[in-house]
């Protein structure tokens, strides 16, 4: 995920629009793959570490946190972007 964000930041140094677009699309694809890997691995870790009667509750908490991050992250990022003039 960090590597995808770093590659996305290099798009600011692209000289033409097509290169910027290709770098941005590649970085976003890499971030999407990383997000899928994180979502799967976090659920596996929770399932293996918290076995017992409350396992479903802990899995629900992680799903809720991932969902809230995916829903509110772009909104908060847009607000920060406005204030930083990016």
How does this structure look, described?
With 86 residues, this protein is mostly helical. The protein has one domain. The protein is built from 3 helices and no strands. Helix 1 runs antiparallel to helix 2 and helix 2 packs antiparallel against helix 3. It is elongated. 0% of the residues are buried. The mean pLDDT is 88.
Instruction: Give helix and strand order, one letter per element, not per position.
Output: HHH
Mean pLDDT: 88
Largest sheet: none
* Helix content percent band: over 70%
Low-pLDDT residue spans: none
β-sheet strand percentage: under 5%
Give the structural class.
Answer: mainly alpha
Anisotropy-based shape: elongated
User: Total strand count, please?
Assistant: 0
- Put simply, the count of helices is 3
Radius of gyration: 17 Å
First CA to last CA: what distance?
A: 20 Å
How would the blueprint of this fold be written?
Blueprint: H1 2-9, H2 17-49, H3 55-84
Helix pairs in contact: 1-2, 2-3
How would you concisely characterize the structure shown here?
This protein is mainly α and about 90 residues long. Helices cover about 85% and strands about 0% of the residues.
Characteristics:
83% helix, 86 residues
């Amino acid at each position: 995920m960090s590597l995808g964000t770093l590659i996305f930041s290099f798009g600011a140094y692209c000289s033409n629009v097509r290169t910027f677009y290709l770098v941005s699309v590649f970085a976003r694809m890499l971030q999407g793959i990383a997000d899928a890997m994180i979502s799967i691995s976090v659920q596996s870790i929770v399932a293996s570490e918290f076995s017992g009667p409350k396992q479903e509750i802990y899995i629900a908490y992680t799903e809720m946190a991932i969902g809230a991050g995916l829903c509110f992250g772009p909104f908060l990022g847009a607000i920060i972007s406005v204030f930083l003039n990016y």
